[in-house]
Design brief:
The complex is a heterodimer of chains A (114) and B (112).
Chain A lengths: L4 E3 L2 E4 L5 E6 L6 E7 L5 E8 L2 E5 L6 E5 L5 E5 L8 E8 L9 E2 L3 E5 L1
Chain B lengths: L4 E3 L2 E5 L4 E6 L5 E9 L6 E6 L5 E4 L2 E6 L4 E6 L8 E9 L5 E3 L3 E6 L1
Parallel strand pairs in B: 2-11
Antiparallel strand pairs in B: 1-3, 3-8, 4-5, 4-9, 6-7, 7-8, 9-10, 9-11
The chains are: A mainly beta (114), B mainly beta (112).
Chain lengths: 114, 112
């Protein structure tokens, strides 16, 4: 158990809908990262927040957005869902904001878009 | 898109044998290289974070080396056990967050 929690574990929805994925980092960690794992792709970095502020963006679509709240939990919002958005979404956390900080991954949310 | 490649894509090892595999990455603008172990139905687990050329890290029977000048890292598993079966991912961090990419992984299957 990494100490990072994600809810829900599974989510099934329809095309065009909007969903919110939630992540709570390990106690003491200030950074949260979001990743997408699709069937035909490796682990893709989406976005990073550090202490409430967006710090880095990866391959995140404009239909997706995220935020980190004062209690440091984070939410990833996915809207106008398409079939291709079906994937495993991980969040990870780390103490700091450096590329050399060890990241701890949550159990993931499996999103299925029908 | 950064060129972070792992080879081989998969390998089968007999229990007790040792093995190694490679992560290659851009040799310029290096900041850090991470290794993760990812078991089926679980989430990636950090093994090592390597930042200095010539770094060698060890955790139990697993060790890693780093050559930033030529852009590669090796992961070694000594005396493989069935519980070592997993996908091993490397992740390259360049000198800015725009230069951050995971490799596709090496899937290791250890058979008794």
């Amino acid at each position: 158990d990494s100490g990072v929690t994600q809810t829900p574990k599974h989510l099934i929805t329809a095309t065009g809908q909007r969903v919110t994925l939630r992540c709570s980092p390990r106690s003491g960690d200030l950074s949260v990262y979001w990743y997408q794992q699709s069937l035909d792709q490796g682990l893709q970095f989406l976005i990073q927040y550090y202490n409430g502020e967006e710090r880095a963006k990866g391959n995140i679509l404009e239909r997706f957005s995220a935020q980190q709240f004062p209690d440091l939990h984070s939410e990833l919002n996915l809207s106008s869902l398409e079939l291709g958005d079906s994937a495993l979404y991980f969040c990870a956390s780390s103490v700091g904001n450096s590329g050399s900080d060890e990241q701890f991954f949550g159990p993931g949310t499996r999103l299925t878009v029908l | 898109i950064l060129n972070v490649e792992q080879s081989p894509q998969s390998l089968h090892v007999q229990e007790g044998d040792s093995t190694n595999f490679t992560c290659s990455f851009p040799s310029s603008n290096f900041y850090a290289l991470h290794w993760y172990r990812w078991e089926t139905a679980k989430s990636p687990e950090a093994l090592f974070v390597m930042t200095l050329n010539g770094d060698e890290k060890k955790k139990g029977r697993i060790s890693a080396t780093l050559n930033t000048k030529e852009g590669y890292s090796y992961l070694y598993i000594k005396g493989s056990q069935p519980e070592d079966s997993a996908t091993y991912l490397c992740a390259f961090f360049g000198d800015s967050w725009g230069k951050f990419q995971f490799g596709a992984g090496t899937q290791v299957v250890v058979t008794p």
